[in-house]
Amino acid sequence: MSFFDRKKKENDDNYSDLNNSSYQNPQPDQNNFDQAQNQYNDAQMNNGTQFGGNDFNQPSQAAQPGSNDYFFGQNQPQMQQQPQMDSNRNPQPGMDSGEEWQYTEQNLQNTLDQSADLKSQLRSQLLTDRSYCNHILRNVGSDQVDERKQATDRIDQINASLKEWFGTDEMANEIYLDANSDYYIFTDDLAANPDSDTTNMWQQLTMTMADKGLIANAISVTYNDQIDEAWMNYQNAGFVDGNAYLLNMYNDLQGRNMNTPVTPAEIPFDADYRVQHVSDKVDKILDADDKLVMEVSRNANHQLQIIRHYKNGTQLLSRDIFDVNGVISATQFYDHRNTNKVVRENFYRQNGTLVLIKSYTAEEPYIQLFSEGNVLISTFDNDEDLIFWWLKNQALKQNASTIFVSINSEYYKKLLELRDYGFEVIPIVMKQSENAQEVSDLIEGRDKINAVLAGSDQVNTYLNKNSKNKLDITTLKELDTPIYKE
């Protein structure tokens, strides 16, 4: 059953197609329609290594995107009853000529008011339905030809009606947000000390979703052993919803989301080793010849954080990195000719098994992914391919998901390919001046983008005015600017 068939089935009692004769709004007599009342002719334009203000285009309350009435249903607000003339004042033979024209004038005004109300209702319904059709186009794969054609044909019908009644179809819809979908904010990494542009984006998007009764969770894809602490700080600061969760690729691959009991690691210690205390958090391990074997660093809780291994007292061989549970998370191996160069990184699960190898030499594949039984699952030529595989096959495989991603993201272009697998990807443009090539590709239609989150009304207007294809645009809610008194 297609999206459209399913929607019809759910709305049998409150939906009719535009070309169905059972749903044809009464059309006013065009000869009597005062062109001065046609107030809708003009479109609204407001409308390296791993470690190192007002919304001008919002439809009226008659049919908000995301409500249950995005089709033309019986739950739409009913048009207010227009005042009727007293039947005793019907023109009568011999009626004073002044009373006669006043009566006719009042009837004409009532007809024009009724026409304006009907046009306003029709405009909202058409834009809401067009927004839903664009939602379908963003979610169905490029190989689902029939469903894409159904959506495209209905958009053509909607645009024809908009042009007939309002003189133009250049009106931006709000983005249709389905309450049954899961929403994620994609971020390359979660900075411990984000700049103001980053915090503004998080807060504005969180407020916008909350205004619609929705929550956006987060996805990050960079190795960061302090990421859980950073996420708690984001929640405490109000950047994200307190009930939202973070899904990090490395935490997931390494099994840190399993909440299974773990045993902290211990320092490998030979009988002839001795400890030299350097500081409260750093110890050096020396052998019987007083040559440096290891340098051990601990965190504020005195858990293991890093162990550096040395050869002959001076040559750095490798570095073990431990997670917040004191369990080994990764090992970096250094070039024996250049200790500033990492040649390989191993990543481990909480149970100690190898999950991922990253090689920085030409002799091995860049990334190798292993099962718990140490069987090779797949190899990847770059981080983009690994991220794409993880999102499609593991992180989101059971969800109908929408991903919001900043156009500044390193992985923005790769994420757009997820649309072919039924995921919805919506870019965020906070400033029209950022990432000129990506913004150019968007407005020129090269990336076939149908929906955008705009950081301000100015960005909304710019995209609406310059885009070569029709866009659904939602402006993120503005942050309140604090008022300082002298």
From TrEMBL:
Start-end of Low complexity biased regions: 16-47, 74-85
Source domain of life: Bacteria
Sequence ranges of Polar residues compositional bias: 55-67
Disordered, as annotated region: 1-99
Biased composition annotated in UniProt, kind: Basic and acidic residues: 1-12
UniProt name for this protein: Uncharacterized protein
Native species: Companilactobacillus pabuli
